[in-house]
Amino acid sequence: MKKKILPYLLLAPMILIMGVLVFYPIIATFSYSLKKWKLTAPNDIRFIGVKNYAAVLTSESFWYSFRNTVFILAVVVILTTVLGFLISVFLNVNVKGSGILLAIAILPWALPPYVNGILWKFVFSSGYGFMNKVLLGLGVINQPVEWLGSRWSLLLLVALVVTWRSIPFMALVCLAGRQSIPDGIYEAARIDGGNTRTIFRTVTLPLMLPFFGIGITSASVTAINVFDEIIALSGYSDLGKNILVESYLTTFSFLDFGKGSAVTYLVMFFAGILGVWYLKSLNREVEY
Amino acid sequence: MKKKILSMFLGISMVVSMAAGCSGGNASEDKATDASTDAPNTETAPEESGEGGSITLMAPDWAIPTEEQLAEFKDETGIEVVVNEVGWDDIRDKMVTAAAGGQAVADVVEVDWSWVGEFYAADWLEPLDVSDEVKADMPTLETFTKDGKVLAVPYANDYRLSYYNTKQYEDAGIKDEPQTWEEVYENCKTLKQKGVCDYPFALPLNAEEKTSTYLMWLAYTMNGVVFNDDGTLSKDSVLAALQYEEKLIKDELVDPADKTSSGMDAYKRILSGSANFLTGPTSFVSKSTNEEECSVIGQIQPILVPGKDAKATVTMALPEGLGVTKFSENKDAAKKFIEWYTSADMQEKLNASNTAIPTLNSVLKKLIDNGTIQNAGAMMEEAELIVSPFPGGVPSYYAEMSNAMYNAINKMALGEMNAEEAYAEMEKKVAELVKAE
Question: Is domain A35-282 annotated with CATH 1.10.3720.10?
Fold first, then answer.
């Protein structure tokens, strides 16, 4: 009997923590999303069913933000995966000072997102930006370029900045994945006549899929949740807003907790679908 | 067995310690933990305070009184003030989060003029008693008044004043200061043509609050009206102001960087001589005489804001005030603090210690007359022209309206739409908000 109780007792603290800090807010937010709850109308809080969801899903602003989110997500995932993997290949070469190189490669990952955004704002600022100064100095351009002045260039920059922060984790995961593949498999493949390209395609890539899965899931979550970099680069401008900025504006700027909670739930729903899809398609069991 | 007992003990201790950490505790303990560690008086626990009890104050760094000033207040009233210094940007979010849960983020809180409508609608502020004498001497108080109730008392004055670079005018052969907005435009063109200043007009165009307020006071000083009585936009006035801004952008009289850099960066161009004309905060009076901030000292002249046919007869104020939260358990002490903090004597002291511009016109006049505020120009005259542009006070939907306005202006600046389209976009949104109110 004691043996049956003990595991539950040991799990109890974690269940309590998860319950209070994760499950309760999720349930509470869902209940808010079903209410008309604007803080500036404290006497008019009432249950309205799915009307908030209907309002959000028919709003032009939400779909604009959604398209921006999808764009950032696509660019971040593709670039992070490709560049993260390439960097892991370089880091896998055992040379003198590779430890230092690894430490340098991890640096962007350690930067707080807002600091990251500010740093890149200095680089791409229209007036006093580093990039404009370099290009003007080299005679590549005659007039400063307004890097942050159009929707797509701004979104591309946001995606690049987020990619810069996401690459180290992907590189580390890929490096761990690459180093976990036993050398014997490569030897066997070579004996069987495999060249570098064939070995990469038939050995390295399939065996590393679960690691890509972890890296891509992490990069996707980062790309969907990007907030600080957007605020640092373009403030609350309509141009670059994603669904997280939309959620923040609705909830905390416009004080509409009902509609804001609905936006938050939709973000969670889309992220959930993506997560399940990744897990199903990439996280395969690997046997050596 | 020992291991099992140890595991159980650790598990139970963790649950107990977490429960303790999550417990509500009493109000005074909360206040003690809320206070920031580097602010004055934070080390004194409220229980140790004098007979008058203790209150908490949440405000940005420029509003925090010195330790000596707080000690004087404690000596006078016996009330201990526990200071919680918070960045201006975070105060509203903290207030919203706490008030949504029915909690007081502090007894006395910073209240920006733009938050008044929504805080009033949400019923988060305690009405304050202000004497008729103070009301008559403090024109910015009108901004913090809704339905006859004073919701906060302004402590730092900020109203729109114009500035121009006199040396650049001389270099371009322009003799007189501009009287009308059309003259400002013509003079800017001359400055550019003669190569004196490439981008003479400092104009915030980034998607942020300053861009909306600029349009408001441009329309207000140009045509004397921004909003109709029902809260919708006054088309003739606002569209004319938008077209004026569009003209400045098209003629390249505004720095392209102003479209994406912060509004304050756009304003500050006048301090380096890269802009000639600015209508902006009163703080630029002192900035224009500060060697650390200004490289063209002696060249910037504060003048009355231009109007349509002559100087404008009104100006807009954007002051900051202090209010008492509805959820405060120390309302009387909090009100006493605000009365002391905004008194004539303290306004003089805060000007010396925090460079706050007085909100009492009598104090402002005294400081200008005795030379404490230098290079004041038309500062005093302009202070007497302060009138709120909002017919029924700042509306509860101000944040959403401002967001729609600055985004439309930013799109116009970036060439995505023209002035008429930008106006149509903001008019539609404002009409929706007014209807939903």
Answer: yes
